[in-house]
Amino acid sequence: MAFQLSPGSFAPGARVGILGGGQLGRMLAMAAAGLGLKAHIFAPEPDSPAFDVCVEKTVAAYEDEAALAFFAANVDVITYEFENVPARTAALLSDLCLVRPSAAALAACQDRLVEKEFLADIGIPTAAYMRVDDAGSMARAVAQLGRPSILKTRRFGYDGKGQVLVREGADLAVTFRSLGGGPAILEAIVPFAKEVSVVAARGADGAFAAYDVCENRHENHILKVTRAPARISPGTAAEAVELTRAIAEALDYVGVIAVEMFVVEQAGGGEQLRVNEIAPRVHNSGHWTLDGSATSQFEQHIRAIVGWPLGATWRHGETVEMENLIGEEVFGFERVLREPGASLHLYGKAEARAGRKMGHVTRVAPGHKA
Amino acid sequence: MAFQLSPGSFAPGARVGILGGGQLGRMLAMAAAGLGLKAHIFAPEPDSPAFDVCVEKTVAAYEDEAALAFFAANVDVITYEFENVPARTAALLSDLCLVRPSAAALAACQDRLVEKEFLADIGIPTAAYMRVDDAGSMARAVAQLGRPSILKTRRFGYDGKGQVLVREGADLAVTFRSLGGGPAILEAIVPFAKEVSVVAARGADGAFAAYDVCENRHENHILKVTRAPARISPGTAAEAVELTRAIAEALDYVGVIAVEMFVVEQAGGGEQLRVNEIAPRVHNSGHWTLDGSATSQFEQHIRAIVGWPLGATWRHGETVEMENLIGEEVFGFERVLREPGASLHLYGKAEARAGRKMGHVTRVAPGHKA
Question: Which parts of the sequence bind ATP (chains A, B) (predicted)?
């Protein structure tokens, strides 16, 4: 006898390669282990948190082609925990191994201009934006979009890094150079009432499953609290899921995807959505699913990339709240342990630097929804 | 700044040593990682499932004193996933490191005769039993307890191994020798209506927290299904928990403990409990807590041994069912993945031998209790 498998799917015991060794890679590796799969982490930092929970590790730079070839030869499918995988790395791995989500999906999400153009192509609303390559295009963009507006590097931004507010009176050439003077985009300010996100998955068979839309509160540009479900109208929530489905289908996506959106309240009542960012990976705003849903986003991503059926995405509890423990906040972890029903997750990071995500807490409010 | 810790407790990053590399060690290691702790697994089998998810491993025999000394020097606290840790191993480790639960608690639970005498001493009802050391004491025991009765080796029994039914007409000397002729115990048959178990934890501070009493169904002497809560009267359930608390306190226990009991229906109505076996560890009948409780038994055990507060033990769902996937049953895993809301756990074992526990499924029925 042997495992009964659907076409194209892997058997338990298959080797899942994960690029990136942070907390997302760590939680993906644990989810893989829970399903009887073997995680192999590829990351450059020798003290990567994900190394604590994997079967095999490769410590090498993302540009180390020999190490990438060894990695690809020793796993059955490759995924990643971050969108800034160099294009050449993704291309090289894709030649040698199945990569999910695909290098094309990755490419669409790692450059803010490409991402906005992709969204415009499929008719999905975003903030107004203009391409900025030099002081001249910067001046034209500001003339068009007004002030305040936001200048963002096209690549490598996260947690508010790589962006600057363009204020009244600011010197435009100085502002442009303050971000390094590389390819950038200027975005109009969206006067949003709420920031929400949709975490969803698309299976290798095209099946789609979204978690409840959740709302996010940032502090110092870092996600602080996620609450599910978002306090928006049912119609807006359904539309948010449909936008996410459209994005996933247009990208022929396999795996978990997260779409951040702004909710703008209309003058005449009603809510309008504008997509802010796509993350081609598991997402901080989906951590609540570890304790608050039938299937965690990490398990869901692993199911998708090995070709298994997606799991149920229903929510436990009337509401679920996730709070990040940032920097020295982690030192008070015992208070969380004493809080009845709070679930503590720590990432095993040695040093509690300012702004560093050290762990999170989930609180599932009683009341079951199924 | 630094971690705010209660006296005697360890900080995140502490190293948890686990003796034994099977599925219990594996799930303990994952729980430790979830709390930011580092798991070090000590096990003799090079392909131990727990090696997939630990920071460090020692592959050595339980009698290898140099390896044990290295292990003890490299961890902050030691625990185990099985009760058959050799006494000398436990003593040696206890001299070098904090061991939880203690070697004394372990000793009380690894010999069926010692265990029964301990229970009798603290006034806890069990099946009638007699010590059997040779053919003579065997004959006397059978004369006393009647037939059918059950002969069990005093040590190393599990999943029905190390026991034999003493039938009418069976040759007693042959029966005694069939179990190896070593120290044994004869137990009277308990005409039970149900087998239940209590999985509970006692903290380093003496706090006690039990999960709902659950009922167990065995097939071929191997646990097949656990259901929480057990269908017994509230009074019987409360008594089962109190018996467990008494046992844990008498052992000055730290960690998760499981107590298996028989429920006997009285002629005049009502239910009576008889303790069958104590497991000084996490237990198969507590696997449902991974998906069906606020805190899993694995996290609870880790919290206890590092001196952290115990977590909430309430149940999600009106009922929770856990089904073991034994041997070739695992080959049908995809059916489980397709079942809405079923949670699949696979242990990463390469070979699906008959009678081997390969994984389990949890089903949480809607309806939340908090």
Answer: 112, 152, 157-163, 187-190, 195, 218, 276-277
Contacting residues of A for B5, CB less than 8 Å apart: 334
Structural Rg of chain B based on CA atoms: 21
Could you say which of A188, A217, A232 is where a domain stops? A188
A315 touches chain B (CB under 8 A): no
Contact A37 B340 (CB under 8 A): no
The pLDDT confidence band at residue B369, using thresholds 50, 70 and 90, is: very low
Instruction: Tell me if A39 sits within 8 A of A32, measured CB to CB.
Output: yes
What CATH code is carried by the domain that includes residue A53?
3.40.50.20
In a domain, B115, yes or no: no
Residue A161 is predicted with a pLDDT of 82
CA geometry: angle B34, B39, B43, nearest 5 deg: 135
Residues B183-204: pLDDT tens digits? 999 999 999 999 999 999 999 9
Are B4 and A332 inside 8 Å of each other by CB? Answer: yes
* B55 → chain A, closest CA residue: A52
A200 and A340: one domain? yes
Which residues in chain A have their CB less than 8 angstroms from residue B338's CB? 309
Q: Is A60 helix (H, G, I), strand (E, B) or coil?
A: coil
Q: Please tell me whether residues A172 and A225 are part of one structural domain.
A: no
Return d(Cα B47, Cα B25) in angstroms, integer: 13
Please report the sign of the dihedral spanned by the C-alpha atoms of residue A70, residue A75, residue A81, residue A83: positive
The two structure tokens encoding residue B48: 């131990």
Q: Which whole number is the average pLDDT over A241-269?
A: 97
Contact A331 B53 (CB under 8 A): no
Which residues constitute the domain of residue A34? Answer: 15-99
The residue of chain B with its CA nearest to that of A290 is B291
Residues written for chain B: 370
Q: Is B16 helix (H, G, I), strand (E, B) or coil?
A: strand
Q: What is the predicted ipTM?
A: 0.95
Same domain for B239 and B296? yes
Q: What is the mean pLDDT of residues B26-43?
A: 98
CB within 8 Å: A331 and B368 = no
pLDDT, tens only, A34-54: 999 999 999 999 999 999 999
Instruction: Report residue B172 as tokens.
Output: 């007693």
Of all residues in chain B, the percent with pLDDT exceeding 70 is 99
The CATH number assigned to the domain holding A165 equals 3.30.1490.20
Look at residue B211 in the predicted model and tell me its pLDDT: 98
Taking CB atoms and an 8 Å cut-off, how many pairs form between chains A and B? Answer: 144
Residues of B in contact with A36 (CB under 8 A): 333, 346-349, 359
- The reported pLDDT for the residue numbered B365 is 83
Which residue in chain A is spatially nearest to B38 when comparing CA positions? A52
Within a domain: B121: no
Q: The CATH number of the domain where A314 resides is what?
A: 3.30.470.20
The alpha carbon of residue A54 is apart from the nearest alpha carbon of chain B, in Å, by 5
DSSP B227-260: EES-SS-HHHHHHHHHHHHHHHHHTT--EEEEEE
Mean residue pLDDT across chain A: 95
pLDDT above 50 for A368: no
C-alpha–C-alpha distance, residues A279 and A275, integer Å? 11
Do residues B19 and B168 both lie within one domain?
no
Nearest Cα of chain B lies from the Cα of A248 at a distance, in angstroms, of: 22
Give the closest of B1, B312, B332 to A328, CB-based: B1
B120 in any annotated domain: no
Annotated binding site of B: 112, 152, 157-163, 187-190, 195, 218, 276-277
pLDDT level of residue B367 (50, 70, 90 thresholds)? low
A133 marked among binding-site residues: no
Q: Is the peptide bond before B101 cis (omega within 30 degrees of 0)?
A: yes
pLDDT value of residue A367: 54
> What total of structural domains would you count in chain B?
3
A110 is a domain residue? no
The per-residue pLDDT for range A42-97, each reduced to its tens digit, is 999 999 999 999 999 999 999 999 999 999 999 999 999 999 999 899 999 999 99
Q: Does B274 touch chain A (CB under 8 A)?
A: no
